[in-house]
Specification:
Elements (H helix, E strand, L loop, with lengths): L2 H10 L5 H31 L5 H44 L11 H15 L1 H6 L1 H21 L2 H20 L1 H27 L1 H6 L3 H47 L3 H13 L1 H28 L9 H4 L20 E9 L9 E9 L3 E6 L5 H8 L7 E6 L2 E2 L5 H7 E4 L8 E2 H5 L8 H10 L3 H5 L8 E2 L8 H14 L4 E5 L7 H14 L4 E5 L11 E6 L2 E7 H7 L2 H9 L1
Parallel strand pairs: 3-10, 3-11, 6-9, 9-10
Antiparallel strand pairs: 1-2, 1-4, 4-5, 7-8, 11-12
This protein binds adenosine-5'-triphosphate.
Adenosine-5'-triphosphate binds next to helix 14.
Length: 576
């Protein structure tokens, strides 16, 4: 990705804001011209060698006040554009990120993504607020001021100053490639550092538990040193550039003194030259920040433009919940109520072996089916397909005869709920966590769900009942309570299909049995797909699918499979 591509992309996002940006540019040009005028009027008064008058003071104060007002307008309009553009960029970032989950957000990517979503987007502000106005005024103000100097004072002095001004404006761009590479290196190392800090914070218990804090700190220091080295190279380049610009501006004053024949003309030319320092220095200031802003924008764009693994085609084709799928898609694989997987294969990005390989099976509506298999056999992958956490590379998953790809994603995820093994509770109260998927649910529904998961006694002991705050990531509840709150949260949404992915694994046997019994008793029509390695807890009458290395090994009722002494029986023996 080069700077031109990033520039085009950023500009395409602010097209409607350009008139306001124009106001900022105009205000800046005028206020900087007034800055030159202020010095020239003062110099002219010195040249006139007359005592100061009220009229002169009035002029100076008037110019200063108008300049201040224009400066305010320039800043206000520029920042209004910048913050509106940043708001749009944030909205775009999250809108494009959501369909890329969970692939885009899992594991190490988390903290790195946060860096892109927050600080990288903030860094783009430099481009929106501090680039175009200084770039245009850096050319316009010297051009106008030197034209005036040439016409009204002495053309030779204007010609002497012009090359200095031109060189000082062009200089910041001469190290273009090196500066861009430097800015990208700094941005990448900053991202790597953020990812490392994120890992260490998430895994703080493991780090302390294994006593590896010193090794982790050393590694963190290493990442920090790499960032410092990249910033030093970048800073050295900036330092040399700024020094050269300063030398050029100083040199312009010496050149005026060297060629001026007349003291009065020299004073006016010096006033113009000094007045041009601010607009010309503005180029150096934004050039330093511009590559940083472009590098940050390039990282944001990588996320925004990434192809989502799961796409909601119904949003563009207009297919509704009962639709038969986007034009050209395969006809429904099955018309039976419940879930049908038809020759499903899934290989994760970067993996050679498929996690699921030509899996075909049927899970009847209203049944409590169980998927068992050893670790890594593909159980969770199968569960994730049911609510389109991932899409298969081949084959079709259908719900009640309709391919999942023909259902709007929102509707699908309302009908199919997942209770994961390691759920995350958000900061908020018990009630706000339970209402995540059903914001309109009343308290009675929440209490009902908590009773089903056997948390009614726990709730009764809480100081503020449903309004009791839960801390971020649910650290003040036990693992088993967290799993049950997550299960209750799924039930509050009143799904048709409930996927339990080892969702009761942290409960003691008696509590898990109570939760199963209450689920069966209170939700008789619910289709449950339970993923577990505890084959010994599966009742004889439950339909079972045994997976191994991504393939279906056995299907049938648990009791019958136990009797045959095959794969299910040996997994059961291992679980005991
Ligand atoms: N997000 C992912 N990216 C890459 N590979 C993955 C991902 N998730 C799972 N896998 C791989 O896919 C295979 C199946 O994993 P899956 O989690 O579905 O198995 P599982 O039977 O649920 O295992 P467990 O009982 O240990 O949870 C494994 O080899 C695993 O390493």
């Amino acid at each position: 990705m080069n700077r031109l591509a990033v520039l085009r992309w950023l500009l395409s996002g602010i097209r409607g804001l350009l008139p306001v940006l124009g106001v900022s540019v105009l205000a800046r040009v005028l206020q900087q011209l007034l800055g030159v005028a202020l010095l020239v009027v003062a110099a002219a008064a010195v040249v006139a060698a007359e005592p100061p008058t009220w009229a002169l003071a009035g002029w100076l104060v008037g110019i200063a006040l108008v300049k201040a007002a224009l400066r305010y307008l320039e800043q206000y309009a520029g920042h209004w554009v910048a913050f509106t553009a940043l708001q749009r960029l944030r909205e775009l970032f999250f809108a494009r990120l959501a369909p890329q989950a969970p692939a885009a957000t899992q594991g190490r990517a988390g903290a790195e993504l946060t860096e892109r979503a927050t600080r990288d987007i903030d860094r783009v502000e430099v481009f929106f607020a501090h680039t175009m106005p200084p770039a245009i005024s850096a050319v316009a103000v010297p051009a106008i001021a030197l034209l005036w100097l040439g016409a009204a004072v002495d053309a030779r002095l204007a010609l002497v100053l012009a090359p200095f001004a031109a060189a000082a404006i062009a200089l910041p761009f001469l190290a273009g490639g090196a500066s861009w590479r430097g800015a990208r290196a700094v941005a990448a190392r900053r991202g790597a550092l953020a990812a490392r800090i994120g890992d260490d914070l998430q895994g703080i218990r493991e780090v302390l538990g294994f006593g590896i804090q010193h090794a982790r700190l050393d590694a963190l220091d290493g990442a920090d040193r790499a960032l410092t080295a990249a910033r030093s190279r970048d800073g050295a380049l900036q330092g040399v550039r700024t020094a050269c610009v300063t030398a050029l501006l100083g040199g312009s004053l010496v050149a005026v003194l060297a060629v001026a024949a007349d003291g009065a003309d020299a004073l006016l030319a010096l006033a113009v030259a000094a007045g041009l320092w601010t607009p010309i220095r503005g180029v150096d200031a934004f050039a330093s920040g511009l590559d940083t802003a472009f590098a940050a924008a390039a990282r944001v764009r990588e996320v925004v433009e990434a192809q989502p693994l799961v796409r909601d085609d119904t949003a563009t084709t207009g297919a509704g919940p009962a639709g038969t799928g986007p034009a050209g898609s395969a006809p429904p694989a099955a018309s039976a109520p419940g879930i049908v997987l038809d020759r499903i294969s899934l290989t994760y990005p970067g993996r050679a072996r498929p996690a699921l390989d030509a899996v075909s099976l049927q899970l009847a509506a209203g049944d409590w089916s169980t998927i068992v298999g050893v670790s890594g056999s593909g159980k969770s992958s199968l569960g994730a397909l049911l609510l389109r956490g991932w899409d298969p590379d081949a084959g079709t998953v259908s719900l009640d005869g309709v391919p999942l790809t023909a259902l709007p994603l929102d509707a699908l995820r309302r009908r199919v709920a997942l209770a994961p093994q390691q759920p995350v509770l958000l900061s908020g109260t018990v009630a706000s966590n339970l209402r995540l998927a059903a914001p309109d649910a009343d308290d009675a529904r929440l209490l009902d769900a908590l009773r089903t998961v056997a948390l009614d006694d726990w709730l009764a002991g809480l100081p503020a009942g449903l309004d009791t705050p839960l801390r971020e990531r649910g650290v003040d509840v036990s693992g088993g309570q967290r799993q049950r709150i997550a299960l209750a949260r799924a039930l509050v949404a009143e799904p048709e299909v409930l996927v339990l992915d080892e969702a009761l694994s942290q409960l003691d046997g008696a509590t898990a049995a109570t939760v199963r019994a209450r689920l069966l008793e209170r939700h008789p029509g619910l289709t449950v797909v339970e993923i577990t390695h505890r084959a010994d807890l599966v009742p004889d009458g439950s339909p079972v699918v045994v997976l191994d290395a991504g393939r279906v090994l056995e299907t049938g009722l648990a009791g019958a499979l136990r009797a045959t002494g095959g794969a299910f029986a040996s997994i059961e023996a291992r679980a005991r």
